[in-house]
Amino acid sequence: MTPRDAQAPSTALLTDRYELTMIDAALRDGTASRRCVFELFGRRLPGARRFGVVAGTGRLLQQLRDFRFGDDELRYLSDHRVVSRETLDFLAGYRFSGTIRGYREGELYFPGSPILIVEGTFAEAVVLETIALSILNHDSAVANAAARMSIAAGDRPLAEMGSRRAAEQSAVAAARAAYIAGFDATSNLEAGRAWGIPTMGTAAHAWTLLHDTEEQAFRSQIDALGTETTLLIDTYDIREGVATAIRVAGTALGGVRIDSGDLPAVAAAVRAQLDDLGATATKITVTSDLDEFAIAALAASPVDSYGVGTSVVTGSGAPTAGMVYKLVARQDAGGGWVAVAKTSTDKGSKGGRKAAFRTLDEGTATSELIVVSDGFEELSPASRHPDARPLLVTLVEQGETDAGYEGAAGVAAARAHHARVREELPVRALALSRSDPALPTVYTDAG
Amino acid sequence: MTPRDAQAPSTALLTDRYELTMIDAALRDGTASRRCVFELFGRRLPGARRFGVVAGTGRLLQQLRDFRFGDDELRYLSDHRVVSRETLDFLAGYRFSGTIRGYREGELYFPGSPILIVEGTFAEAVVLETIALSILNHDSAVANAAARMSIAAGDRPLAEMGSRRAAEQSAVAAARAAYIAGFDATSNLEAGRAWGIPTMGTAAHAWTLLHDTEEQAFRSQIDALGTETTLLIDTYDIREGVATAIRVAGTALGGVRIDSGDLPAVAAAVRAQLDDLGATATKITVTSDLDEFAIAALAASPVDSYGVGTSVVTGSGAPTAGMVYKLVARQDAGGGWVAVAKTSTDKGSKGGRKAAFRTLDEGTATSELIVVSDGFEELSPASRHPDARPLLVTLVEQGETDAGYEGAAGVAAARAHHARVREELPVRALALSRSDPALPTVYTDAG
């Protein structure tokens, strides 16, 4: 693994305590070194949606670099007697040296899709459960919602501006996930810096309220930001706001923003007024409590772009993707390979190593094909499914991360990949109503 | 303000772009230095609940210390031409030098409660909008849900274990907020280290699946963690799991955990089986998709403690508290004091400086009393409401933070404060059903 940034804080305690107590017991009974396969997947799509969007992978890879138990972390674990002295020694030397394959960031997923497959010893793989799930569950929940909004918006630009409705670091991750799933920009400056996402925004109601008149506020904003700026015209009376905006800026005004009211009616009235005043090129942005349904309902309205806040950062009703991280195969005492799965209840999973393919018919996706193996053999059903697109790529090989999936370049690649694979979806997958998944998940045995 | 930790990364770009463009324009027209009062409040309680719980204040104070524009931040803003050269110079010297009063962390709130009141120049106060809202909206959403779960659980211990269903840093903040609102422990180790919260957890299903038999898994866990540990008994057959657990551990086994199935039925069966086996002191913990309603439904079941995941970290249906940050008063061009508010629509706010009190009748809260002032005068209605408890404390005075609200000590104080003020609530406030707020918000004029 590439050396971690010396500045970066450790991510190793972003972990549930039971992972370390299991390592403690496994080091004691010798099972810590058993080779294991853990799988990260969703049992269902959140919110009865038709497809999911994988997001967070690139963030996980970066945080994996910083997943080291340093002096501070070890001191806490020691002071609070979380684990034994032997386990502290093991953790002090911890670095993930296994292999992670997974879906590319931006890829679509369906129930049972093996989004991440982590292979390594029990001890090195079990400890990644929480951080992997935290990142993938949050980011994919946002991406799932964002993709639907992007479909609803069609060609109209879509900006994420929900930072204030998400915890401060989640806000940055949410901006990133929304961008991957089709948004065009964000209000969040850190998302711009860290991930290369275009940022936007001009003024809040506070700007108008700060000034003694709306006209003074508009005039100052034009002076500072130019005629191309967007003026927020709904602080007092919207009709007067539009009239003042054009009187101050002229008909070359870039745009007006509406942040309240019954948007279809208000947008139509504002458009008519702008056109009457000769400001036919002045654009209208709307930003009031939009979600995918509200965006769809505005499709016929004279709106030029959308800003979405709360609903995208909170997953539009499904704030977590609900993915789980399960042991699906391991070595037994004799070194043999065993597929394993919880069997007691409804929360079962499918044991065995997996490979995954999207079958296509003339370019349109027809199924999520998951090939299950009980053993170590190579999983290469592509030969039997020549039209199937392989979904798994190697993200980490023997501890070495593929840097191509990280950073701003990784985000740009994920966004492009998402746009490409979304084109494969059948038309029915694009509807917003609640439904079964758009593709069936089909399991087949290897060999 | 106390010097920031040299290690801590800057929080200054956790900010919406429009805050900086407003500063840019305000520096140009001279309004940047107008004295302003911004107020952070909720227009309603999320999820039609009966009260809200303030959380995040201590985190905000710590992040405010790191809210500085350093070389990296300024370079990004310069490279992307977010603001002018003059504004970069202003930001380079930025440090909040104003005053923040607010509700204590752990305090209850109602619609319109002035949870934070930020006074300073326009430029120094407007730029805190996003970070203040991000932290308070997230943490209070979790605390709102957690308080209801804590009420439903009564005297039974309650652990937060939802890290996997929240973004990795939000998970730490969520554990903290849940603890303040009445939870007793968390699975999240970083929450333990950073905020002094007790941590818990023993083993996952992967532990049982790792071993060739359930018995071997239980035996190893007992060997490593002692008989006092909690065994997870639902990987295969629950009845066999319980029998195996007691056979291996003896009747002194600390506890068993059930993570699936129809909990009231399963808990009753497990309790009866444990008692039959003589393990009458072995405790039962349940952890499967609980929320406040499921906890309440288990009140008559033989359950000893609860672990709550998804629902608490996602606010149990209300993942953001929906608070806003609004300019409510400012100086005009002549230096006079003006109460301001958006007036166009349903999203209006109440202008003017505020003070806040909880009126009490024989120790039971009767109203949220908000005293509104149009001017600079002292707001001291306590003399007229001798039974009213003042709700605002000074968090930051001329840039100096009151350190008593920060760190693990701040968390402990907030948790104690919450427990105390929750005792003031009328009984009707403790019901879980959707309702109007339990207390009316009453506005009165100062003077």
TrEMBL record, chains A, B:
Entry superkingdom: Bacteria
Main EC class the enzyme belongs to: ligase
Gene3D superfamilies: Aldolase class I, nicotinate phosphoribosyltransferase
Domain Nicotinate/nicotinamide phosphoribosyltransferase residues, every copy: 158-355
TM helices/strands, residue ranges: none
Pathway where it operates: Cofactor biosynthesis; NAD(+) biosynthesis; nicotinate D-ribonucleotide from nicotinate: step 1/1
Record GO cellular component, one term: cytosol
All residue ranges annotated as the Nicotinate phosphoribosyltransferase N-terminal domain in the record: 13-137
Enzyme Commission number(s) from the entry: 6.3.4.21
SUPFAM superfamilies, A to Z: Nicotinate/Quinolinate PRTase C-terminal domain-like (SSF51690), Nicotinate/Quinolinate PRTase N-terminal domain-like (SSF54675)
Catalytic activity: 5-phospho-alpha-D-ribose 1-diphosphate + nicotinate + ATP + H2O = nicotinate beta-D-ribonucleotide + ADP + phosphate + diphosphate
Keywords: Glycosyltransferase, Ligase, Phosphoprotein, Pyridine nucleotide biosynthesis, Transferase
GO molecular function, one term: glycosyltransferase activity
GO biological process: NAD+ biosynthetic process via the salvage pathway
InterPro entries: Aldolase_TIM, N/Namide_PRibTrfase, NAPRTase_N, Nic_PRibTrfase-Fam, Nic_PRibTrfase_pncB, Nicotinate_pribotase-like_C
Mod. after translation: Transiently phosphorylated on a His residue during the reaction cycle. Phosphorylation strongly increases the affinity for substrates and increases the rate of nicotinate D-ribonucleotide production. Dephosphorylation regenerates the low-affinity form of the enzyme, leading to product release.
Pfam families reported for this sequence: NAPRTase (PF04095), NAPRTase_N (PF17767)
Function as written in the Swiss-Prot or TrEMBL entry: Catalyzes the first step in the biosynthesis of NAD from nicotinic acid, the ATP-dependent synthesis of beta-nicotinate D-ribonucleotide from nicotinate and 5-phospho-D-ribose 1-phosphate.
NCBIfam families linked to this entry: NAPRTase_put, PRK09243.1-5, PRK12484.1
Family statement: Belongs to the NAPRTase family.
Protein name: Nicotinate phosphoribosyltransferase
